[in-house]
Amino acid sequence: xxxxxxxxxxxxxxxxxxxxxxxxxxxxxxxxxxxxxxxxxxxxxxxxxxxxxxxxxxxxxxxxxxxxxxxxxxxxxxxxxxxxxxxxxxxxxxxxxxxxxxxxxxxxxxxxxxxxxxxxxxxxxxxxxxxxxxxxxxxxxxxxx
Length: 145
Prior knowledge:
145 residues; alpha/beta; Cytidine Deaminase, domain 2; five-stranded mixed β-sheet; globular
């Protein structure tokens, strides 16, 4: 798939954190956390053909990709729970490194977004939970989003 190779190449060679190709538009972010992904997916929400390459893809990000109708995702690092979700919803995926969990920035526990969605089964429910958690964290002035 050409778009997946394109987004993957831009992510890895140009050292971005997120590259989304939607129809004929490309959205690039160098931000950290899940907030840039939410913003990028919002920017391309009306596109029919969305492909993404992302530095870190855990279950939370996978839910957002599924909810947005993304067809293919490359993750520089991808969790097993993300691959399971992609398989369940028929999203093509590739990764460089497969991991059991996405760890928080302090390196001492599970990412807060992963904790938020660990027991959720539906993409729309997960998105609402992620947005709620982001709001809670932003009120605490956290850098974990």
